[in-house]
Amino acid sequence: MKVLVSGASIAGPALAMWLVRNGVDVTVVEKAPDIRPGGQAVDFKGPTHRTVLERMGVWGDLVAAQTARSDVRLIDARERVKAVMPGEFLGGDLEIRRGDLARILHQHAAPHADFVFGDEIVGLTETADGVTVAFAHRPTERFDLVVGADGIHSAVRALAFGPEEAHLEQLGHYYAVADAEVPSNGEVRDLADGRAIQYGYNEPGRYAVLGDTKAPLFFVFRADQAAYDRRDPDSQKEFLAQHMAGMGWRVPEMVRAAVDAPEFYLDAIARTRMTSFTRGRVALLGDAGYANTLGGFGTGLAVVGAYVLAGELEAARGDHAAAFAAYDRRMGPLSKVARRANAGPFLAPPSALRIRMRDLIFASGPLFRGMMRLTEAFATDPGLPDYRFRVSA
Fold first, then answer.
1. How many alpha carbons lie under 13 Å from residue 53 in its C-beta half-sphere?
2. Which residues partner with 272 through β-bridges?
3. pTM score, two decimals?
4. Which residue ranges does the record assign to the FAD-binding domain (predicted)?
5. Cβ(294)–Cβ(313) under 8 Å?
C-alpha cells in the first residue's frame, strides 16, 4: 500500500511512524522548507496520551526535551497578583515546544518514510483503485490513500471535502505567538527548582503573557473580523498592534518586540465542524479534522488519531473503507471536546467581572480540582485498543 500524508508537523510524522510498522510505503509532503522550529508550548495529559506515546517509543525523548513547568501569575496593571494558573493546568503531564516535538517525531519517522519538503498537494483525482495526486512542483503520482494532516487550514480538506468556510468555525478571537525577548523589569521569571514564571495581564477582551527568554510572547484578543492577510506577516503584525493598542502594563513594549520578531505567528481561534473525517480514499487527521485552537487537546488528539487510523488500517487488512469507518466511530466521541470548547472568552474574558470570575477558578481549590478532573476525562479513552502492528517499536 502507498499512502501520501500531507503535513510534517505532528500528526503527519506520528502517522508515518505507525504506518511503516504495517509495511506501508509512506510519503510525507510538507509545504515548508523544513521542520518548523520554536512555537508555543503544547502538552499531553492523562493515561491515554502517555500510553500512545510510550507505544510509539518517543516518551523518553519527549521527557528529555520538555519545558520547565510554568505558572502564570495573573496580575493587574500594578503587578499585583490576582490568581495563579498552575503549570499543572497549563502543561498537563508533559509540556514541550511544538518545534521540539515535531523535530523528535521527524527524527523517528524519517529513516523509514520519504519526506518531501517545499512542495504541496494542489489536486486530487480519485478513482476506484486509488488517488492521483497533483503537486505544485513534483510530477503527478498515484497513491492508494491520502491523509490530510496539514493543519487547521488544510489544503487536503478543501480539495476533498469542500471550501474551508463550510467546515471551519471562526470563534471571534485571535491569538499571536512571537519568539522575542523582552528584558526583565524586575519581575521574577525563573525559580530555583527549575520552574518558570510567566505573567498574564488582562483587560476586557484582551490578554498578554510575558515569560522567560525561552517562552514566546503570547497574545489573545477579540476582533469582529479577520482584517489581515493570512499569508502576509506584516499584515498580521499590524492586526495585532491595532487590537492591542492602548493596553496598560508592559503590553506596548511586548507588542513592539513581537512586531520586530522574525518568528511570528497569528491566526484565528477556530474549531472544525466535522463529525466524519473520511471521504472515499481520503482521511483527515489532527487539526485538519478536529481542530480546537488553544483548547488544550489538539496535540494529544493528533497523536491518538494517528495511532487509531494506522491501527484500524492494519486491523482491516487493507480494507480502507472498513478502517475509515472504524476510525470515524472512535475519533468522533474523543474529538467531541473540539466541537464544543472555546478558549477565547476564557483567556480574554469580555468584561472585568468575567475576568474576576475566571480568576476565581484558580483561587478556589475545589473549582480548580474539578476542572482538572474534567480536562483529564476529556483526554482519556478507557477503551483504546492495543493494536497489533507487524513490526514492534
1. 24
2. 168
3. 0.91
4. 2-321
5. no
Q: Residue 60: CB partners within 8 Å, gap ≥ 6?
A: none
The residue type found at 118 is G
Q: What is the DSSP string of 229-271?
A: -TT-HHHHHHHHHHHHTT--TTHHHHHHHHHH-SSEEEEEEEE
- Is residue 99 classed as helix, strand or coil in its secondary structure? helix
Give the orientation angle of helix 320-334 with respect to helix 298-315, to 10 degrees: 150
Where does residue 298 rank: exposed (0-12), middle (13-18), buried (19+ CB within 10 A)? buried
Closest by Cα among 26, 1, 2, 30 to 15: 26
Size of the chain in residues: 393
Alpha helix (H) residue ranges in the chain: 11-21, 46-56, 59-65, 87-91, 98-109, 155-161, 233-244, 251-260, 287-290, 298-315, 320-334, 343-347, 352-363, 365-379
Q: Which fold has domain 2-379?
A: FAD/NAD(P)-binding domain (3.50.50)
End-to-end CA distance of the chain: 20
What is the distance between the alpha carbons of residues 30 and 26, in angstroms, rounded to a whole number? 13
Query: Alpha-carbon dihedral of residues 116, 164, 3, 97, nearest 10 degrees?
Result: 60
Q: Give the relative orientation of helices 365-379 and 352-363 as an angle to the nearest 10 degrees.
A: 90
pLDDT tens for each residue of the chain, 393 residues long: 999 999 999 999 999 999 999 999 999 999 999 998 877 889 898 899 999 999 999 999 999 999 877 889 999 999 999 999 888 777 788 989 999 999 999 999 999 999 999 999 999 999 999 999 999 999 999 999 999 999 999 999 999 999 999 999 999 999 999 988 888 777 766 665 667 788 999 999 999 999 876 678 999 999 999 999 998 999 999 999 999 999 999 999 999 999 999 889 999 999 998 889 999 999 999 999 998 888 777 899 999 999 999 999 999 998 999 999 999 999 988 888 777 778 899 999 999 999 999 999 888 778 878 877 777 776 777 788 899 887 655
CA distance 133 to 114: 16
- Helix ranges, 44-165 (H): 46-56, 59-65, 87-91, 98-109, 155-161
**Nearest residue to 330 (alpha-carbon basis) of 293, 285, 372:** 285
Give the whole-angstrom CA distance, residue 126 versus residue 327: 20
